Amino acid sequence: MAAGTGLFAEILDGDVYKYYADGEWKKSASGKSVAIINPTTRKTQYKVQACSQEEVNKVMDLAKSAQKLWAKTPLWKRAELLHKAAAILKEHKAPIAECLVKEIAKPAKDAVTEVVRSGDLVSYTAEEGVRILGEGKFLVSDSFPGNERTKYCLTSKIPLGVILAIPPFNYPVNLAVSKIAPALIAGNSIVLKPPTQGAVSALHMVHCFHLAGFPKGLINCVTGKGSEIGDFLTMHPGVNCISFTGGDTGIAISKKAGMIPLQMELGGKDACIVLEDADLDLVAANIIKGGFSYSGQRCTAVKVVLVMESAADALVEKVKAKVAKLTVGPPEDDCDITPVVSESSANFIEGLVLDAKEKGATFCQEYKREGNLIWPLLLDNVRPDMRIAWEEPFGPVLPVIRINSVEEGIHHCNASNFGLQGCVFTKDVNKAIMISDAMETGTVQINSAPARGPDHFPFQGIKDSGIGSQGITNSINMMTKVKTTVINLPSPSYTMG
Ligand SMILES: NC(=O)C1=CN([C@@H]2O[C@H](COP(=O)(O)OP(=O)(O)OC[C@H]3O[C@@H](n4cnc5c(N)ncnc54)[C@H](OP(=O)(O)O)[C@@H]3O)[C@@H](O)[C@H]2O)C=CC1
Ligand SMILES: O=C(O)[C@H](O)COP(=O)(O)O
């Protein structure tokens, strides 16, 4: 079954995909649509509705009333529907993966993996939610000095209300369900604003939730350019929480949003610190996986290598040899390196490369670009005065900085405005733990490349990399607030007294 056909035919109207509200697929009254450019062909691949502000207002009202009913739905029923959606998602992985290939040039194999991983995330969330939301806390007053046991305190986790979920282009399905599933199991409703490039993948995913039979109005998906409809959404009074993943757009949103909980997973400049005793074959393999998977378009990609001078020549040679074996071409052929998501992204990456060239970096390969396709490039002898030492290319270009001490590596890592993940390679685990303690990042991987997965691990950025902690359990908890009920007794009650 291809995208927009069979079960998915109802989400398409002519050549424009509909938006989803009140349990139905709708055409926007705006009469406008947004073109989605295929990064490989650089031609329009799909079109989605440009929803109007009136339609957003309507969706917010629908989401609010649906949430009130959903909060009264037993946990086991919420979980049952999530398991159904997960199964449908995995059953239809092929058409959804096809959209990922066409919209964001994700290699075909990785596209299928993203959909299956998303189904697994939804199911795991259902199970985890039933457990952690099925228990609260019971406190007694006499544990605090001066009190008798005359007060029983019952605390529980209750939903926030309407969650506005805004995922980025690079995981438009996985980073959407990583917000949707925790929100739903916790009793919230969802308004999803998918990335423009990735929107059709997201709409197909939403249809799987629709087919699972969730109540009308509980899940809604409005499409349109973030630059046009984004502010109206994030500042909407009907929103009770924003869960955002993306670039520094998130910082701007955090300045505009009202008094509501924010979950922000933003950019990263994940540093890879390599000590002289590291297993260089292991390091080289992880630099390739970490630095060049999905053409470096991952927030957790290795974005700067900080290698001890004594090991640098040998490491660079090993990485060069592996770069030479990377396949470059269209996502349909499962190439390792595929076109980056847009011309503007490719131009940004090129700007960093030219800056590095002008300032004297060593080019381990010739710089080569054809349209949005940029060949993998390792830059050696990068110095801190070069932009690429600090900025996030979000592309297949990786800088190597040679260091003469561990402290120098840690300093560079901590001098970044980002603080998402980092990694350190050494055989000395005690030293690795000390370095991890010193690195100002949300996560440090020891002897492996940075990664968000597996999806139940806590995942958080600090500084300009984000607010709050995600990963299934933490995401569920972040989508709740505490409710306390205190029972006041006429006289102290010491059971078993
Ligand atoms: N920390 C993490 O887990 C991740 C971080 N990232 C970071 O995101 C960047 C690349 O992803 P990208 O999608 O381009 O990031 P963007 O920040 O450009 O977009 C992220 C989302 O925000 C939407 N958006 C854009 N403008 C607004 C606005 N004013 N109000 C509300 N929403 C808006 C976008 O919609 P539209 O597409 O219509 O513009 C998209 O859905 C990189 O910096 C990368 O590091 C990416 C993935 C994960
Ligand atoms: O934001 C991203 O790019 C993803 O969170 C990366 O996820 P991964 O490390 O599991 O690929």
UniProtKB/TrEMBL annotation:
Give GO MF terms, alphabetically: glyceraldehyde-3-phosphate dehydrogenase (NADP+) (non-phosphorylating) activity; lactaldehyde dehydrogenase (NAD+) activity
**PROSITE patterns reported for this sequence:** ALDEHYDE_DEHYDR_CYS, ALDEHYDE_DEHYDR_GLU
Its family remark reads: Belongs to the aldehyde dehydrogenase family.
Give its E.C. classification number: 1.2.1.9
**Where is it localised?**
Cytoplasm
Q: Which PANTHER family match?
A: ALDEHYDE DEHYDROGENASE
Specify the species: Glycine soja
Q: What is this protein called?
A: NADP-dependent glyceraldehyde-3-phosphate dehydrogenase
Active site residues per record:
265
Q: What class of enzyme is it?
A: oxidoreductase
- Please list the residue ranges annotated as the Aldehyde dehydrogenase domain: 25-484
Q: What is the catalytic activity of this protein?
A: D-glyceraldehyde 3-phosphate + NADP(+) + H2O = (2R)-3-phosphoglycerate + NADPH + 2 H(+)
UniProt keyword Lipoprotein, yes or no: no
Q: Which GO terms describe its cellular component?
A: cytoplasm
Query: Which UniProt keywords are listed?
Result: Cytoplasm, NADP, Oxidoreductase
The primary location reported for this protein is: cytoplasm
